[in-house]
Design goal:
Mean pLDDT: 86
Radius of gyration: 22 Å
Number of strands: 0
Helix content: over 70%
């Protein structure tokens, strides 16, 4: 971790590259979560009915389960779908920052 931070610490161009990579990744992750949450909303009624049929006759618990299931599904799928491309993108950024640092170090007398 210290080595990764040393790549961007004190260099304005490195910070701008990092922000240029991280902001779109963050925005895409949020957009993906919102879309998946909207797509998982139909699970709400099925969850409530299944909870009431198989579980105790607690309507409040069924309501809460109906609220939480779409959120949990959206969070799990967002992590599974967003982390691999984000990790690959940040690995490419780190490699480019290392190459840029090595080029700067080799041109210095």
């Amino acid at each position: 971790m210290r080595h990764s931070w040393s790549l961007v610490w004190g260099r304005a161009s490195a910070w701008s590259r990092t922000v240029a990579f991280a902001l779109p990744l963050g925005a895409l992750t949020v957009a993906l979560y919102v879309l998946l949450h909207l797509a998982a909303r139909p699970l709400r009624s099925g969850t409530v009915h299944a909870f009431l049929e198989w579980g105790p006759d607690n309507t409040y618990a069924a309501y809460v389960a109906g609220l939480l299931v779409p959120i949990a599904v959206a969070l799990l799928l967002t992590g599974a779908l967003a982390l691999p491309p984000a990790h690959a993108t940040l690995a490419i950024l780190r490699q480019r920052l290392v190459q840029a640092r090595e080029r700067r170090a080799s041109t210095r007398p």
